Amino acid sequence: MQARRGELIDALGEAGALAEVEGSTVGLVAGRLEAAGGEAEITILAVEEGARGRGIGRALLDTAVEALRAAGVRRAWLVTTNDNLTALRLYQRAGWRLAALRPGAVDEARRTLKPSIPALGDDGIPIRDELELELVLEPPLPA
Ligand SMILES: CC(C)(COP(=O)(O)OP(=O)(O)OC[C@H]1O[C@@H](n2cnc3c(N)ncnc32)[C@H](O)[C@@H]1OP(=O)(O)O)[C@@H](O)C(=O)NCCC(=O)NCCS
C-alpha cells in the first residue's frame, strides 16, 4: 500500500508491465485509469537494485506511456517524493513536468496513514514532501 495525496492506495493499480532479464523479473510499472478515462496515474515504477542503471526503468516508463496513449489517455500523472533524485531525473529526462508540490505531505502521511515510511531517503535527504509530475500525451497518429 502506498500513501499519496492523503490516502492509501494499492500501488499495483489496475494494469502494468513486468521487465524480465534471462527469465527473472527485475522490474515493474503499474497504473490506473481515472474514472473519466482521459487521465491515468502511474502508481509504481520499480527496478531491482542490482538491475538499475541499464535503461530498464526508462523502458518500463516508455512502455506504460505508449499503452496509455494507445488507450486514449491525454494526461498521465504520478507522485514522487522530495528525496527521490533518481526518479526526478528519470521522469524529467523523459519529458515529464513538475505539476504540484505538497510540502509536508509525507510527514503527514507518516503520522496518519503509514508510520513505516522511513524518515530518510537513500541520499540522507529527509523524506517530507510530495511532488506531482505530469505528461501530456498526444493522440497516436492514425494508421
Ligand atoms: C527510479 C528507478 C525505477 C530507475 O530505474 P533504472 O532501471 O535504474 O532506470 P534507468 O536505467 O532507465 O535510468 C537510470 C540511469 O541509468 C542510465 N542508463 C540507462 N541505460 C544505461 C546503460 N545501458 N548503461 C549505463 N547507464 C544507463 C540512464 O541514462 C539513467 O542515468 P541518467 O539519469 O544519468 O540518464 C529505480 O532507481 C528504482 O526502482 N528506484 C526505487 C523505486 C523508485 O524510487 N521508483 C520511483 C518512485 S516514483
Question: What is the structure about, briefly put?
Answer:
The chain is of the alpha+beta class and 143 residues long. The protein has one domain (2-136): Aminopeptidase (3-Layer(aba) Sandwich), CATH 3.40.630.30.
Can you tell me about this structure?
With 143 residues, the chain is an alpha+beta fold. The protein has a single domain, classed as Gcn5-related N-acetyltransferase (GNAT) (Aminopeptidase). It is built from 3 helices and 8 strands; from the N terminus they run E-E-E-E-E-H-E-H-E-H-E. The strands form 2 sheets. The protein has a 6-stranded mixed beta sheet with strand order 3-4-5-6-8-7, with helices on one face. Strands 1-2 form a two-stranded antiparallel ribbon. The longest helix is centred in the middle third of the chain and has 15 residues. The protein is globular. The mean pLDDT is 94. Bound molecules: coenzyme A.
